[in-house]
Amino acid sequence: MIEFSNTTFKYNVTRADGVNEDIAGVRDLNFTVKDGEFVVLTGGSGCGKTTVIRLINGLIPHFYNGELSGTVTLNGSNIKDMSIYEISGHVGSVFQNPRTQFFNVNTTDEMAFAAENRGEQPERIKTAIASTAEKMRIENLLDRNIFELSGGEKQIIACAGINVLSPDIIVLDEPSSNLDHLAIKKLAEVLKHWKQAGKTIIVAEHRLFYLKDMTDRMIVMENGRIKHEYDHAALISLTYEHCKKLGIRPLSLEGVPLEKAVEKSAANRIEIRDLSFTYKNGRHSINISGLSIEEGRVTAVIGRNGAGKSTLVRNICGLEKRCKGTFMYHGKNMRHKERLHNCYMIMQDVNHQLFTESVADEVMLSITDKKMREEEKRKRAEEILKALDLSDVAETHPMALSGGQKQRTAIASGIASGKPVIILDEPTSGLDLYHMEQVAAETEKLKKLGKTVLIVTHDLEFIFKCCDNVVHMENGTVKESYRLDETTCGKVRDFINGKKEKESENV
Amino acid sequence: MEIAVQEVNEQRLPKIDPRTKMMLLITVGIIMMSGKLTGVEYILRLICTCVPFLLLVLIKQYKAAAVSSLILLAVVLCEGFVVPKTSGFLNLMIMIVCGVISRFGPGYLCGWYMVRSTSVSEFITAMERMHFPNIITIPMSVMFRYFPTLKEEYSSIHDAMKMREIGQNIKNPLIYIEYILVPIMMSTVQIANDLSAASLTKGLGTDGKRTHICTVGITAWDVALIAVMALMLVVFFIF
Known about the structure:
The complex is a heterodimer of chains A (507) and B (239). Chain A is of the alpha/beta class.
């Protein structure tokens, strides 16, 4: 049993300007999780759900600094009095970012790692690994290099490692953030299996649709407090409108409405012909005989992980020199150098594309028009920052911003660069409802500016809010490409809901 | 002879213990870095130049093995036979270029082999057998993970720079370095932090006794290799 009583936690953080500050994680929490219960924590970013997870797995107070009052007890003992080693024997954790939770490079070693640290018998560990691999059907993932796996495969290896040690309590912090729908399905299977085995499971998550059937209780948090609690019967009756009012992502994708007006077809198109490209390691190769992208519209690129979505946009951007094919834009074939000059991609990890010391400098850096004088540039930068609600943080260091602000800074630089094609790579992964809507609004702004926008995404709500066209990739080719309207929205929904079972089922 | 070695590997890959690998690395490092270009020491240097080739063949990096050993051999032979016959500026240039490659190259290749061929848990196990404390072992073992991570980060940042058309000006390499280094440092700090948290929840870093599913042990191969290395070091230091 996990018991929170009058638990308050404040993080000690040092702000960018060097001032120390206490930021509330959770306030006056009182709740218990029974053995074998499946609890989902949800709510907007910063609502405190991650803090709750950290309080259970002992990272608070043993790793993150702050001020803890009240108590959290695991099976009757206070986490303050237990060492993190002791807690790790009872609680297994899966984290949000599959890239940063592995200590080993080899998958089998990683699966054994937690059990080895507890000093279990090597023979028992080996048997447990073999039976876990069989149960999860991941024999093909054993003894591989973790750097070669997809995000979904990594997350499954993280779950497998927990299965080997088999603790009573399992906590997961936004485990689906970086996964496509098939990987999410696999994750849901693992969770179901754990539930049947009687584990106590606590999931902090924005995307709720895959958890609905197995959730015993859902807790909606706000500002570090519990705002609502729903038991299983109450939560399955929550409709799309209810969820919207609560500010959370929907519990079912069936009810997500198509929210945008259908656009007229555009006058100009970018025509791609006979595109072929293979990475040096032979994976994710693409081969596209013809694809046309409407200018001044928003096009969603959907498809499974590994279908070649990212490869396609990287080629359109001109990031791959060895790419073959023609890209006709305004009646002219553009080579990769010219495409680089005309396209701007906002990467999934925006940290990689912010280089300067302030948000304003970041935008200025992108204004490369030599004819403009310094004051004109500054003025232009101010306008762009204002349009994206970044004026307040214009002098802040980009690394001190929140995730959403960093992404907006990257978008602002894209606008400043004056390039006509803007590409976003999974801009809404791991975002709550509010921030997802914000990205949708920014996409609208880009369209109003006349930009051609391409978005790689798995997010149905987001597609239905702002995309005009859909390109569906499969096995490196374009399976279908169509305008999004009342007649075609069912197709997208079925795909993202995982209705098409024919596609091969390896993560 | 090289072909024979390959065939043996195909049948039964001799597994070299991480401790032996360290010994190899240290021996090759010492002899190549500080050896003279004449007499017995030169012969020892020639032998050490061949070590990376054998190691890379062992992990089936045939192309890298061929290219690197051709370069190394050429450089070392050049040092032995061309350098004495030249003089003046040419002599200086050859000395500098060959010197840098021959003194650092083999050690670098042995290090690369070690990181490539040793899994993190083999390394930890071997270090524990030598009774190194965790406080040294754990930070060192993170290195195995750090290099591939760095490579991933570097290539994304490089792409971002290409797209923003910055740092492309060769005239200003300092700007390039700044633009690469700042985001790399920011993201590696973040990664290190997340990784520590994840490892703690898996029970790492306490004094509790660890077990290992990997098998690490000194075999006849290791004994032979260690004996040869020890002999070479003795010869190196006596003469």
